[in-house]
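Quick one: structure tokens for this chain, please?
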Amino acid sequence: MRRIVLILFLMSACYTNSQAQQITLEDLFVKRSFRESTVTGLASTKDGLSYTTLENGGKEIVKYSYKTGERQSLILDIQLLKNDSLNSVGEYVFSSDETKVLLLTSRKQIYRRSFTAVYFVYNFITRELTRLAPGRQQVATFSPDGERVAFVRNNNLYVKSLRFGTERQMTIDGEVNKIINGVPDWVYEEEFEFNKAFEWSPDSKQVAYIKFDEEQVPTFAFPVYKGLNPIHPENSTYPGEYRFKYPKAGEKNSLVSVWVYDIKAGQNIEMDMGNDKDYYIPKILWSYGGKNLGIFKMNRLQNKLDLLYANSYSGDTRQIYTEKNKRYIETDYLNNFQFLPDDRSFVILSEQDGYKHLYLYDNSGVKVTQLTSGKFDVLKFYGYDPAGKTFYYQAAAISPMQREVYGVTYEPKKKLSLKTQKLSAQNGTNNAEFSSTFKYFINDYSNLTTPLVVTLHEISGKQLRILKENNELKEKIAAKKIPMKEFFTFKNVEGTELNGWMIKPSDFSTGTKYPVLMTQYSGPNSQEVLDKFGIGWDNYLAQNGYLVVCVDPRGTGARGEDFRKCTYGQLGKYESDDQIEAAKYLAGLSFVDGKKIAIWGWSYGGFMSAMCLAKGGELFRAGISVAPVTNQRFYDTVYSERYMGLPSQNPEGYDDNSPIKLAAGIKGKLLLVHGSADDNVHYQNTVEFAEAMVQAGVQFQMMVYANRNHNLRGGNTTMHLYTMFDNFLKENLK
């Protein structure tokens, strides 16, 4: 009897230990146990010999040597400033002469990139801490000489003199839902990916800015319920309403104009943009020496982009260069454009030969040379070192699933004028941050099985020091025996090879048939299949007996222009075809239960999940669609029209690839989830889709999170959400 009891006790103990090794949802979403440690607040000093970081929970700014990687000094201890409103900082920026630092705290998010904050300026010479201005501001920015700070408050631009402590209002016409000065409207912020629409001139004498007149843009509104109600008191029996300007596909955009404020004269001068009003101004920047203000003007279809030079004193403009594309021009063209220090040339990232590559142009718009070439995409242009005559960039030259750091030296007088050097040593995902003088760089590296490693290098690529290695995380992973991703490829019916990864269940056996969850995003120029580390819900599911699979379909990034843009005019068609092909491929594997395949996704991935269930019929046992776009007509002008053209010119493209039209085809179980306060992908998308399913007699489950935006975060929301996902999959796949 004792022997039996002992055996049962040991079996129970083993079972308990086995269970203790499992990842839990609390590990992922409450404790954040598998978050990678990194170097935060990294900034190079002006001399390029040192760098600074933000440490101790945002309470310290610390200085390190590039040469040795060793700590040199504590630049600023926030706690010693003894200001009740400044306990820690989220960001900091030094003035050009490094005698002052701008400190950001109490950040309050508006949309994805925009926020208000409380700003302070600390003077290292006088040791004085000064609040920039009463209340909250946006995008506070030092002038190049460090004497002033420009910022936006209540849709108007202001400038603060740090020497005299005086504040001047540069614009006076700012008004909510009418006029915005110096920060973008909703659609510019979201789709052109910036949150500051003003730039100091290099001589600190002028501020160029974009004005957004959004009065004629249609207003979108959604209710705000008890608890987060800014309109009525918390106990009100009536919900409030949030109203903002949101241009849906085919509707009116903001009228945009470029202005320059002259600090000395106190006057605003408008730049001449011509008579046409239906255009975008997605970027402004001064030439290196400040002689010209560069203005990018893009047509409504986003297939033509003009670079204009403006005279900031007269307002006159002249066209310098035009980029055209038969389909569309991606935003990374704008993000990677740079004027060079010689003040006579600029670099662009263009698809002129079918792949994204760097090109050098002179100031008159004449091509000097193509700096990079080959059947691969360049992803980032880091900058140019005039001393070494070298251009630094990130590319996917080895594989679309990897990222490397390179330098290409251009010396036109030499026989071999272009010489390329690979700076990153290991295959996987690399990203660099260079010192201000390009003598050193700090590299972030990871791959499928290696958590983030942050290393310090000489510009030759020689490693000097490891800054972060995440050894504790490696130990956790080993202790939990977490199953990891493995790459695979397959060909669709058209013969196109697609990249994917899978995570096999713990204690995987080829003789067992497993249920499958396909996870994906699938949006234009996106990538989910990357040689990059990450531990999350996918690993949790694999530990619980699921085979988790991800495939990047046609339309995704780093495989050249034709692969990326074949979805133009018919978003959702080829991507869903490829996901369905992936499901069929998986169903044919010996270790897959072909009758238990589900697919899920969020945003574009939610759209794709709905499309796959609608087109795939009984192939999919279940699906989860979170915050989906269910017709591109419901989404914004910039995104929808960039990839689809105008609704009036392409009605079939918009409607034929909509899950609303295809709802009757859904055979599997569907969980549909949305936030009622989603400013990005409106709840309208889910309501219209739900109604289509109701009328088609399709049964489904639906969950709405009150007052939550596109991210569905806040309080216990994330835990509730993933617990619901977990239960739904258990009910339908196990």
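The CA atoms of residues 220 and 244 lie 6 Å apart.
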